[in-house]
Amino acid sequence: MAVLKANAYGHGLRHIAKHLDDQNLAFFGVANVREARMLAEEGIKTPIYLLSPTFPDEREEVVRRSWVPCLSSFEEINHFASIVRSSNVGLGSSGGSPNRQMLAHLTLDTGMGRGGFLPGQVNEALHLLTQTPEIKLGGVGSHLPSADEDPTFTLQQFRLFDDLVTGARDLLPADALFHLSNSAGLLDYQSSTTNLVRPGLALYGTSPLPEWQQELQPVMTLKSRIALVRKLPAGHGVSYGRSSILERDTTVATTGIGYGDGLPRSISGKGAYFLVNGEPAPLLGRVTMDQIMLDVTELPSCHPGDEVEIFGSSHPIGHLAGWADTIPWEILTRITPRVSRVYR
Ligand SMILES: *Cc1c(COP(=O)(O)O)cnc(C)c1O
User: Does the domain made of 222-333 have the CATH classification 3.10.310.10?
Assistant: First the structure.
């Protein structure tokens, strides 16, 4: 399953979906019905899986469009079944077209605490499904809260998932899909039952575990360009709040990116730098909405129009995430629509 939620992690849902549609993937994973609709409008053929729960008023559309929801509650099972039943009224009864079934997966809460049946409810949920002909069980999934932080807990979670699935085999279809791993889970863990993985971040070339980064190639490079190169004297202030007062005569490059593009303002004063012609240029003062100022005193050959790499294959996004005290997922998904996406 290719996870394409949140505008394909900021990369552009339509482009990424079209690019992957002929790759014979089990699913495109999206967060919600709105994202599923965008894929449907593009005529995407890959089946659509809804990673988050649906609202009651969205479920009729989910059934009608054959999107695959993940079920976390008895209420969802019963409600979806009743929607399928009412859509079947008038069908099948007179020997015409057969009654429709919907496909759904069951979510287990093995530690994430966000959705899913608890381990003690799994058998009851599966028994209910065996008595619910309107819903065909396509698979069972669960989610990892700390595969990139806590291997001991994650190993226990894998064992719990394998045990639950193995223990319930009699209640599960032979062709069911079993899935647990996000990017971190598929990089470093093994399971005796899973046959599907759900990478998001790794799909876009960033590893949640730094030791695997050399295996991956970042899909996105975020670039800006220098608009002005100016000499400012020692003692001059730079940017809002004058948090930076120049200690020496400084060549300052004013560069066309700011928090209005998704560059976090919180990196101000954290030792951040970006690459100008491959060389590091330190950030001076605060990030403004549309511009930042870089110290290019050591880079005499830098000129207006030169490219600045904010992150990419030469400047890992993990640096920027660290200065902003956040994670690469948040940096990618917060790049605003003002930034043009160029596809190569
Ligand atoms: C977002 C998400 C993923 C992908 O996670 P990554 O860490 O980006 O690989 C997988 N599964 C579920 C349920 C998710 O919500």
Answer: no
